[in-house]
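> forwarded from #structure-qc
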């Protein structure tokens, strides 16, 4: 995968065998020495042995050494010398197993972390266009599973033996919930080893999203039942993947190669100082991530590192897709090489990311994998903030509303999201909020969503931005369902935040990355308190799955089969999916009308006999009633779905 003429990097830093363990490290050319230390524990404990690695013959920057004897269960660090001084101990840049808090590499036989049946584990067959993504944080999902948060609710629920752990997803209650909801891909928030949680004090119940990478190629210890035993986290992560696969659900990893927890004392810097990060013209570190640093994907070693890391998660952990955090920090060439490698393994694996950065990058803007450049990254999808903000309001003000608040002017952005960000003759791109031209070549290049872990969740945002909802749950729910109807009938790939189906809130907290469980945890009573919400989400997802018309998967088919219908008034979008028998849908014409107004509206449609399957509060594919008409009355803050 290396660029022609470029060197191929070896990232295999530790190779165990019962007779001897071989170590290897890449450094910068000017490294003077590399000291390997062997320990008896992952933290503290004795140094058992120190070994000076030797330069590989003919290379300035590759170091190796072999330690005889069976080192299984021991730990190791490297320490690289530059300019006469040692940089400090590091487990290397590509440790595959670590001790507690990720400070030392662990010598284990990775094959022994495979659960029973791992060789037979299979990726569920799901076409690219058929993905339905559920974004979840391990702790949010299961931490409150044993607590009845609402004393008024006394119904017994299955609890968990593994609150906040990978293993919670191996339990029947969890996979049953996901299967019943109908999602087929779980996107887990950062699950590699991150720095912000002290794994030696998990009893403190600290919370973090985990966007502070430490070891990119090891599961996070805080989500394992024993972070001191290196094999446990690796095995439990695999058990999680295996259980989800058995439930027919894919696992997508949130990967954060764009920055590291810190530069100094970080593994990249201690190993190859300066090489992995971008600098400003004045020599200071660039901060396009907004987290204090920004990696340099255009450097050959970083590019190959990212490719190898992604490949490793696919092969070792059977991961099915990747979400790139701040993808706009990475260069286009790197993202193309990653996507090409992923799709050479399986063309149905989803690769998507945030098509933006969180500050200016020290690299030419036109070479970055920004949303506006997605046509140059054709195998990768990007989140549509156009659709998101047209529905809920802009990112820079939680109290600002848009379509869901009944405000005019967002109709073209909604239409942009419905077609999947592609070229469509009926979308007026001049009036789209952000993208003034289509960014996607195919609708599968757009992620459709209204909320994710960032910013307020949907309930909080609606309460903050739409007057009158604070004490009116009925109206709140109507708008919530309307929002998700727009998302799940979009030709893009639909994506939802975990817990929206339970009508979750986060008590109005905008950035809950380190908020306590009381803010972030899902309240599972939501299923009992708001069964109508869960049912609507479930039926909406089923509707999408049962009808090809909602996931045509190609721009040409969308242009052929999707036409917007004229409407009289603002904050109203109507479209027809027509002649769907040609694509194998059992309904030939489907009409969807979204009404963001707080009053009912009448929309003129082609005269026919229609079966109403969605009225804004309930979805029933069998239909509630039929009517022969050319005029449809759409209730306030509701979506009508019907077919003929
Ligand atoms: Ca950690």
């Amino acid at each position: 995968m290396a660029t022609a003429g470029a060197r191929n990097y070896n990232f295999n830093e530790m190779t165990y065998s019962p007779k001897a363990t071989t170590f290897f490290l890449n450094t910068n050319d000017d490294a003077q020495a590399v000291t390997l230390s062997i320990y008896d524990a992952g933290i503290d404990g004795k140094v058992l042995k120190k070994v000076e690695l030797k330069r590989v013959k003919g290379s300035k920057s590759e170091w190796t050494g072999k330690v005889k004897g069976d080192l299984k269960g021991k730990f190791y660090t490297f320490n690289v010398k530059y300019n006469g001084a040692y940089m400090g101990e590091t487990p290397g840049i590509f440790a595959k197993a670590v001790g507690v808090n990720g400070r030392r590499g662990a010598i284990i036989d990775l094959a022994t972390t495979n659960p029973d049946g791992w060789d037979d584990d299979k990726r569920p067959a799901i076409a690219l266009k058929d993905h339905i993504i559920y974004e979840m944080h391990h702790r949010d999902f299961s931490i409150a599973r044993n607590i009845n948060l609402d004393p008024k609710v006394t119904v017994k629920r299955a609890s968990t033996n593994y609150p906040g752990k990978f293993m919670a997803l191996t339990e029947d209650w969890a996979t049953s919930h996901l299967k019943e909801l109908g999602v087929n891909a779980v996107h887990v928030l950062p699950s590699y080893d991150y720095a912000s949680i002290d794994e030696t004090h998990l009893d403190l119940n600290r919370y973090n999203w985990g966007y502070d990478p430490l070891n990119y190629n090891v599961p996070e210890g805080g989500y394992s039942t024993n972070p001191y035993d290196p094999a446990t986290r690796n095995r439990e992560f695999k058990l999680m993947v295996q259980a989800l696969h058995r439930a027919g659900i894919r696992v997508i990893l949130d990967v954060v190669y764009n920055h590291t927890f810190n530069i100094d004392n970080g593994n990249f810097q201690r190993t190859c100082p300066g090489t992995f990060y971008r600098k400003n013209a004045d020599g200071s570190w660039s901060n396009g991530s907004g987290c204090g640093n920004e990696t340099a994907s255009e450097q050959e070693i970083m590019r190959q590192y990212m490719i190898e890391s992604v490949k490793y998660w696919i092969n070792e952990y059977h991961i099915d897709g990747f979400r790139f955090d701040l993808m706009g920090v990475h260069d286009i060439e790197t993202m193309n090489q990653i996507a090409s490698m992923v799709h050479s393994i399986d063309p149905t694996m989803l690769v998507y990311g945030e098509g933006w950065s969180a500050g200016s990058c020290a690299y030419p803007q036109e070479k970055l994998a920004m949303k506006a450049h997605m046509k140059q990254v054709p195998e990768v999808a990007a989140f549509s903030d156009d659709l998101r903000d047209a529905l809920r309001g802009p990112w820079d003000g939680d109290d600002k509303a848009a379509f869901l608040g009944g405000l005019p002017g967002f109709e073209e952005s909604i239409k942009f999201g419905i077609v999947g960000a592609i070229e469509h003759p009926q979308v007026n791109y001049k009036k789209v909020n952000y993208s003034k031209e289509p960014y996607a070549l195919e609708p599968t290049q757009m992620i459709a969503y209204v909320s994710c872990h960032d910013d307020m969740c949907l309930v909080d945002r609606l309460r903050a931005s739409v007057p009158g909802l604070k004490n009116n749950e009925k109206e709140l729910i109507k708008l919530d369902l309307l929002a998700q109807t727009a998302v799940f009938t979009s030709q893009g790939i639909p994506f939802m935040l975990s817990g929206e189906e339970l009508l979750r809130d986060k008590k109005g907290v905008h950035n809950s990355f380190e908020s306590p469980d009381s803010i972030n945890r899902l309240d599972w009573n939501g299923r009992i308190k708001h069964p109508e919400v869960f049912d609507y989400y479930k039926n909406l997802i089923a509707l999408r799955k049962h009808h090809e018309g909602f996931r045509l998967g190609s721009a040409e088919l969308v242009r052929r089969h999707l036409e917007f219908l004229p409407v009289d008034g603002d904050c109203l979008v109507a479209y027809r999916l027509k002649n769907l028998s040609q694509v194998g849908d059992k309904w030939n014409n489907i009409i969807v009308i979204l009404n963001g107004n707080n009053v009912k509206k009448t929309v003129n449609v082609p005269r026919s006999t229609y079966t109403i399957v969605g009225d804004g509060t309930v979805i029933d594919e069998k239909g509630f009633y039929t009517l022969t008409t050319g005029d449809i009355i759409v209730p306030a803050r509701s979506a009508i779905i019907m077919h003929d």
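QC bot note: The longest strand covers residues 601-614. DSSP finds 14 helices and 25 strands in the chain.
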